[in-house]
Specification:
Layout (H helix, E strand, L loop, with lengths): L1 H38 L9 H5 L1 H29 L5 H34 L1 H5 L2 H36 L4 H16 L10 H27 L1
Helix pairs in contact: 1-3, 1-8, 3-4, 4-6, 6-7, 7-8
């Protein structure tokens, strides 16, 4: 009886942990994206004016990235725990792989941007006039706005497919995930704010999981 009670308690806590981690990831990434977009123009050919006026704000944004990534990794883990035996191996592999690739590209883009700030503080004039700055700027832009965005779309497609098959979230959020993923896949690298739909969708998923988790104890009490 004690072992069964422990398993039930663990299964109830896993969705709650997924919801909290997803909400934390969404809030941190949305805040970071807002700060970054308000500080840096969405233009890969931008000459570097933001380094003179907003480098401190961008540095704060980059400081939030590791915490957002940790929350997202926790979100993936507890979602897989919730799926359990219902997890489809094919879609689960794509789900896990795309999520990890998204995090890797997020880190890579943030690391390049952080390197630009450090180099500018060391030699401001020399950096802005060098080909190194142009390369680093374009590299960070391409990784985040093209490749990371596409991996986010693949994550949404695989998660939505798993959701429809297992019903661990409501169906309309899963179908919305398909629509958002299609938008991300077809959008070009020069469309600003596209990545914002990803943390917003994760926030919807997390809130739905949290609401479902809060309903379960009351439903269990009613049936007993």
């Amino acid at each position: 009886m004690k072992q069964e009670s422990g398993l039930i308690s663990a299964r109830l806590k896993a969705p709650r942990a997924a919801a909290i981690a997803g909400i934390l990831f969404s809030v941190l990434l949305i805040a970071g994206l807002l700060l970054f977009r308000l500080s840096v123009r969405a233009d890969p050919l931008e000459a570097g004016a933001w380094l003179k006026t907003n480098s401190g704000t961008v540095a704060l944004t980059l400081y939030l990235v590791p915490f957002a990534a940790i929350a997202f990794l926790w979100f993936i883990g507890v979602l897989r725990d919730r799926l359990g035996e219902l997890e489809d191996r094919f879609f689960a592999t794509v789900f896990l792989g795309s999520g990890l690739l998204f995090l890797a590209m997020l880190f890579a883009s943030a690391a390049v941007a952080g390197g630009i700030i450090i180099a500018y503080r060391a030699r401001p004039a020399a950096l802005l006039e060098s080909a190194t700055y142009s390369f680093a700027r374009d590299l960070a832009y391409e990784i985040m706005n093209l490749y990371a965005v596409k991996m986010a779309a693949v994550f949404m497609v695989s998660t939505s497919t798993l959701a429809i098959r297992t019903r661990f979230i409501v169906r309309w959020i899963a179908f919305l995930g398909y629509a958002f993923a299609l938008f991300l896949l077809l959008s070009g690298r020069y469309v600003a704010w596209t990545i914002m739909v990803f943390p917003l969708w994760v926030l919807l998923v997390s809130v739905d999981i949290l609401i479902d988790n809060l309903r379960r104890p009351s439903q269990a009490g009613a049936t007993s």
